[in-house]
Amino acid sequence: MPASHTIATLDQLQQLFGPVGQASLRKETSFVPPEYRRWIEVSPFAVLATSGARGLDASPRGDPAGFVVVEDERTLLLPERRGNNRIDSLRNILTDPRVALLFLIPGVGETLRVNGRASISTDPELLDRLAVDGKRPQCVLRISVDAVFFQCARAMQRSRLWSDATERPAGVPTAGEMLQALTAGGIDGQRYDVELPARQRATLY
């Protein structure tokens, strides 16, 4: 590949993509506000990303909706269920506590992203609290939140991942509702949601 075609500096990268939209900047928080909490409580599935001495890992996590507990606005609890005992993610956390979570909800185009730092707990009270059908998790990840924000629906629209889904689950806030709350009304949520489908169609590719 010719060197002239390789992006090697931040300046080149920013020139390629242009400025970040205000909504994309203002949707990020350093804690879990009520709108994002509702999102996490309805999600039955997440991808956990970690990094460590042996490399990177991204692995699925799933349970009945709300399996990741919002302990408070800066703490999440993620139960670690029985698996194949590779413990790739847990090995990584022991050497590098930084983690990222990507939450999905069937039928919803947006996803929710959380960046934070995790520790591994075997506190009996936590294990009992997060048991399912009387079976305790092996351990619990206690995640201190650094950043939370939602991702737009374009990837889901391009992939048609939820093309067979019927409707958005009740109680899951829309992109506009989240932005209006996070900006204290600075962004008109209703208008944002009305204009969003056309904007996404126009910018899908």
TrEMBL record:
Which Pfam families does this one have? PNPOx_N
User: Where does the record place the Pyridoxamine 5'-phosphate oxidase N-terminal domain?
Assistant: 33-152
Q: Where are the transmembrane segments?
A: none
Task: Kindly indicate where the leader peptide sits in this chain.
Answer: none
NCBIfam families in the record: PPOX_FMN_DR2398
Q: What is this protein called?
A: Pyridoxamine 5'-phosphate oxidase family protein
Q: To which species is this protein native?
A: Caenimonas terrae
